[in-house]
Amino acid sequence: MTTAAFRNEVSQQMAALVRSDDPDASITFDSTLSSENRKYVHHLAEQFGLRHKSAGKGAGRCITVSRCEHKDKKRNQEGKVKSSNSSGFNRCD
C-alpha cells in the first residue's frame, strides 16, 4: 500500500513539473520503488496529463515522467515554452 506521505510527495513533484517553464523538465523516480508505488506513479502521471515511461528490469526498474509534447506545443504557440520530443513515452490524450 502506498503511504499518504508518498502520495503527497509525488503529487507535489508532478504539480511542479506541470507548472515548470522548462520544456525538458522531467522526474526520474528511483528504482527502489515497490511495484505498487510504481503503479501509483503511472496512475498519477495520467491524472496530471504527463508522459510516463518505465525502463529497466527487476530491481533496476525506474520511471521517468515528463511533460506531454502536444501540451507543450500549445504552450509554445502561446509563447511560453518550446515543444519536446515524446519518443518512447506513453501517449497523453
Global mean pLDDT: 81
Q: Are there runs of 5+ residues with pLDDT below 50, and where?
A: 72-77, 79-91
Largest sheet: 3 strands, antiparallel
Number of strands: 3
Distance, first to last CA: 28 Å
Radius of gyration from the alpha-carbon trace, in angstroms:
13 Å
Give the helix/strand class: alpha+beta
Overall geometry comes to globular
Number of domains: 1
Strand order of the largest sheet: 1-3-2
Counting DSSP H or I runs of 4 or more residues, the number of helices is 3
Summarize the structure.
It contains 3 helices and 3 strands.
Structural commentary:
The protein is an alpha+beta fold and 93 residues long. It has a single domain, classed as Ribosomal Protein S8, Chain: A, domain 1 (2-Layer Sandwich). Helices cover 42% and strands 15% of the residues. The protein contains three helices and three strands, in the order αβαββα. The chain has a three-stranded antiparallel sheet, covered by helices on one side. β2 and β3 form a beta hairpin. α1 runs parallel beside α2. The longest helix has 16 residues. It is globular. The C terminus is likely disordered.
Name the descriptors.
Ribosomal Protein S8, Chain: A, domain 1, alpha+beta, 15% strand, 3 strands, 3-stranded antiparallel sheet
